Amino acid sequence: MKDMQRLDQLTDRFSRGLARRGSRRDFLAKLGVWLAGAAVAPVLLPVARVNARTDDAPVPEEGDPNDCSYWRYCAQGGPLCSCCGGSYNQCPPGTEMSKMAWIGTCHNPADGKHYLIAYNDCCGKSVCQRCTCYRFEREQPVYRASQANDVHWCQANDSSEVACTLAIVLGPAD
Amino acid sequence: MRKPISKWLSGGCFSLLLLLGLNGLSLPLSDEAVAAPSSQNKELGKVSPHWVLYFIFEPSPSNSKYILFDADTAEVKAWLSTGYIPSLEVSPDGGEMIVADTWSEGPERLRADYVSFYDSEDYSFSGAIEMPENRRAMMAPQFRTAVVGDGELFLMFTFPNNGITVIDTGERRIINEIDTPGCSLLYPTGERGVSMICGDGSLLTLHLDADGKVVKRSTSEPFFDPDADPVMENAAVVGGTYYFSSYGGDVYEVDLSGEEPEFHEPWSMVDCCRDEPLAGGEAGAWNIGGVQYLTAHPDRGELYALMHQPSVSGPWDHSFPGNEAWVYDLASKKRIRRIPLEGYMNTLYVTTDAEPLLVTSGSALLDAGTEDEAVDAHARDVIPSASVLQVYDAVEGTYLRKMDQVGITYYVQAAPGNGGRQ
To answer: Which residues of B touch A36 (CB under 8 A)?
Structure first.
């Protein structure tokens, strides 16, 4: 378990470092190479494994987190956790954050910058069915899973039921 | 302590009731109640070419369904109850349906994957295999499963490990697991093979033997640029040729009937029409969108695409539903018909007979209110919360009939006995 946590942290740090240094294309290419290399490791992770807990750093905010037009939700694909007892970066009580996520890049109108957003699902309870929100900015088909919101991201958890979806800032994309 | 009713029935009381019945004595039951045990299930009878299966997605894992729908009468004929985000394949002889799905078990709602078998004659369950690893891909696109080798092998795409579980349909057991890192989905290829789309735009092609072992593996050069204009996953199929559309409406033809894929020159569905005046007098582009956005009629050589005008989603509107079906002649690659739809639809499917019907699902304008309200609703939620199945004459383009309150319909596909995917 500790190995898994360390791997999560490494992956998280690695993905953000790559994203800062190169273009999105470079980032994906390098991530793909790294993940292919991970095949020799005990755990194969062909998609972004994001174990973010809250935002990395304070981000200037404007807009309503309970509204689908809120800036973080530019590639959202599910009910908003902020309408379901959680927040945009915290799962509702009694649910479990997904072990995988897809990553979007959203423009923050408050400071004019682009940020990497991890869309983790919250798992283990039936779907919230409030504030359902689907947006598709820069969304990719499932053969590029780390940027696809058509994937059910609770499928690596013990319960694959999706309660709602988060939008966690990983860091600046520019 | 009360005696269980089963023991009560198996004891003397049941014998006494039976004896009374045999002696012609009247029982304190109505005629209907007496007649009920001898009633028969309604038989489906001969399959009509206008029967289709449509898939209803329910957020609750045990409420999804595949429903057999008669497009001539807009009536339900039968259905299968399935688990979460299922995928259904029909055996080549049409006699069996095979479903891969996921269930939630117990109060902890623990994941449990199955591959189940159903009889096409009466839609009854005939057996299931428990998937020990719970690795089937839970994602929206079609082509997550495939039947190859004249029905001998059922293939299931697995995720996040990106691989294939191979099932012997005769013995109903898992016979192989294949790793396919970086590649996704399953497009049947050749006699007993399958191709998968990889993240760089190439195709991985595998050919299997009767035991499900890989006998040949090859990777093509990228046939599209996923960074510039990615192809969408749900292809239309004519014979062994697959027709993919990119986000921007370019059609990529890939012939998978032989051992190696053959790629044809892409062509555009929208270049012809970018400057065409719209109904409101403005010039603008149309684009493909929805969930099941392509379908084909093999004998007529026609490709049908679900199209919409520019949406509030801007350039990322590949999931925005369509309010017209555009029909292309595959030989000339020219648009030959436009079929206006009565609402904004996510799904498009054409039957393959000589008098084809177009079946579409989504939100009807009448249900959604005004057109502006419908567009606004779809901008926020492209998955319709209240959906309708509509039927059109695919040749004349005329609206024929509908069925309301069908739930969230994702896909429409051929009913058992009406051929494979197209």
So the answer is: 181-182
